[in-house]
Write a structure and sequence with these properties.
Blueprint: H1 2-8, E1 13-19, E2 28-32, H2 40-50, E3 59-61, E4 68-69, E5 80-84, E6 113-115, E7 118-120, H3 125-130, E8 138-145, E9 154-159, H4 166-177, E10 186-189, E11 194-195, E12 206-210, H5 220-224, H6 227-239
Length: 245
C-alpha cells in the first residue's frame, strides 16, 4: 500500500520565487512536494525565510500578469512566481534580471529611475571602472555585517551628485549584506552610533549594517581589514573627505 501511495503522489515541482517590487532579487529556487509541504501556508513560511522578506509572505502572484496563486496545487513545474505580503502586486520585468522594464521619471541627468516604487541609481561608467572612493563624481564606504567576523566588508559605491533616499539605500544594503536576520533596518558607525541619513556618510569610512537586532560591538576593523588598507583609511580620515565635499 505504501508503494502504491508513493506512486500516486503528485510529482515534485521546481519553481522560482522573487520578492515583490524588488528589481535586484535574483530569485530563489524551491522544490515543492507533498512530503515537504503539507499546506500552502507552510510553503509561504519557507519562502519568507528563504528570500529574506522584510514581512511575512502571504500571497504568490504570476510574474507577468499578477494573477494570484490560491493553493499548492496551482503551482506549475518550471514556473516563476512573485512573493508578497498584503501589499499589491508590483509589476516589474522579474524574468529578465538586469534588464528591468523601468517606469517613472528621471532627473535632468537621467540618474533617478523608478521601478514600481523602488528607486535605484545606475552608477556611471566612471564609477564602475575606477572602483574606488576616488572615482570622479563618486564616493565609497565599506560596510561590515553586524556580528559577522568571518566576512570582509563589502564596498558601497554611490554618486555624489544625486541624493539617495534613505529607504532606498537601506534596501540596497539589504541586498548586498544578505543578513541572516533579514532586512537591514539601520546603519551604524563602528562606535555603535546610528547613521540617520545619507548626508552623514563619510567617504572612505567604515559602517555596520544591522537588522532588527541590537548593534554588536566587535573588533570588525581590526580583524577584517588588511593592514595595507588601514593606512589608506587613515589617510581618508585625516583628509576628512565627506560626502559631497
Amino acid at each position: 500500500m505504501s508503494s502504491l501511495g508513493l506512486a500516486l503522489a503528485p510529482p515534485a515541482k521546481n519553481v522560482v520565487v522573487y520578492r515583490n517590487g524588488d528589481p535586484f532579487c535574483p530569485g530563489r529556487k524551491f522544490v515543492v512536494s507533498q512530503r515537504r509541504f503539507l499546506t500552502f501556508e507552510a510553503f509561504l513560511n519557507e519562502v519568507t525565510k528563504s528570500i529574506q522578506a522584510p514581512l511575512a509572505v502571504r500571497n504568490l502572484y504570476t510574474p507577468r500578469h499578477g494573477h494570484r496563486v490560491a493553493e499548492l496545487g496551482d503551482l506549475q513545474d518550471g514556473c516563476q512566481y512573485v512573493a508578497a505580503g498584503f501589499e499589491k502586486f508590483k509589476k516589474l520585468n522579474y524574468l529578465n534580471r538586469g534588464r528591468k522594464e523601468l517606469r517613472g521619471t528621471g532627473n535632468s541627468k537621467g540618474l533617478q529611475v523608478s521601478t514600481g516604487g523602488w528607486l535605484f541609481f545606475p552608477t556611471s561608467h566612471r564609477c564602475r571602472s575606477a572602483g574606488s572612493s576616488r572615482a570622479p563624481g563618486c564616493f565609497s564606504c565599506s560596510v561590515f555585517r553586524n556580528g559577522d567576523l568571518l566576512s570582509p566588508p563589502f564596498p558601497l559605491l554611490l554618486p555624489k551628485s544625486t541624493p539617495l533616499p534613505w529607504d532606498v539605500l537601506l534596501a540596497t544594503l539589504t541586498e548586498k549584506a544578505a543578513l541572516r536576520s533579514g532586512a537591514v533596518n539601520k546603519l551604524c558607525r563602528l562606535d555603535g552610533t546610528r547613521v540617520s541619513g545619507g548626508e552623514e556618510l563619510v567617504n572612505g569610512h567604515y559602517y555596520v549594517a544591522v537588522g532588527n537586532e541590537e548593534y554588536k560591538e566587535l573588533p570588525y576593523f581590526e580583524l577584517l581589514v588588511p593592514q595595507d588598507s588601514v593606512c589608506r583609511t587613515l589617510w581618508y580620515v585625516n583628509c576628512g573627505s565627506a560626502v559631497g565635499g
